[in-house]
Specification:
By secondary structure, the protein is an alpha+beta fold. It contains 2 helices and 9 strands. 19% of the residues lie in helices and 44% in strands. The protein is flat and about 45 Å long.
Length: 162
């Protein structure tokens, strides 16, 4: 099999100012704890029976599947935010749903929107919800700012030790 199905996940978020919008995004990734990895953006399905773990240090350079929201701005004074939410099904043998959202505004506004998106997506799938998990972050732009929120998937509880 080319790719293994992830068995574990964690939520993370970060924000930063930077020299440029790209530098701000890079620093937001570092703030979130995923800045030294190669993020592989994925569509938004949490594998069945996937277990939540506390964030851990990922191996440098690892290819890391992640569903994420990001926002950057170069408008001084603008409030920007990113958030993700996971619809966890009552039946753990079914896939869950990850939704991402970003935009101008507060963390609370973006989280409320992304949580409702998860509710609607699970309803469309006719999957009763056991829980909705979410994380979000906001940033007041000075020169170039960025926010990042993500769901990191991994196929074990943590990196293997040699």
């Amino acid at each position: 099999m080319l790719y293994e199905v992830p068995t574990h996940y964690f939520l993370c978020a970060g924000h930063a100012e930077g020299f440029s919008p790209l530098n701000a995004f890079d620093q937001a990734l570092l703030s979130a704890g995923v800045g030294d990895t190669n993020l592989v953006r994925m569509s938004s399905i949490l594998p069945p029976n996937c277990q939540r773990v506390a964030p851990f240090t990922l191996p440098g350079g690892a290819l890391v599947p992640v569903a994420y929201a990001k926002m950057s701005s170069s408008t001084p004074g603008q409030l920007i935010a990113s958030a993700v939410a996971i619809g966890i099904p009552e039946d753990p043998s079914l896939p869950g749903l990850i939704m991402e959202h970003h935009g101008p505004g507060s963390r609370e506004e973006v989280i409320a929107q992304v949580r409702e998106m998860a509710v609607q997506g699970m309803s469309h799938r006719k999957r009763p919800i056991a829980d909705i998990l979410s994380i979000g972050i906001e940033h007041q732009v000075e020169d170039h700012g960025a926010t990042f929120a993500g769901v990191v998937l991994w196929n074990e509880a943590g990196p293997k030790t040699p």
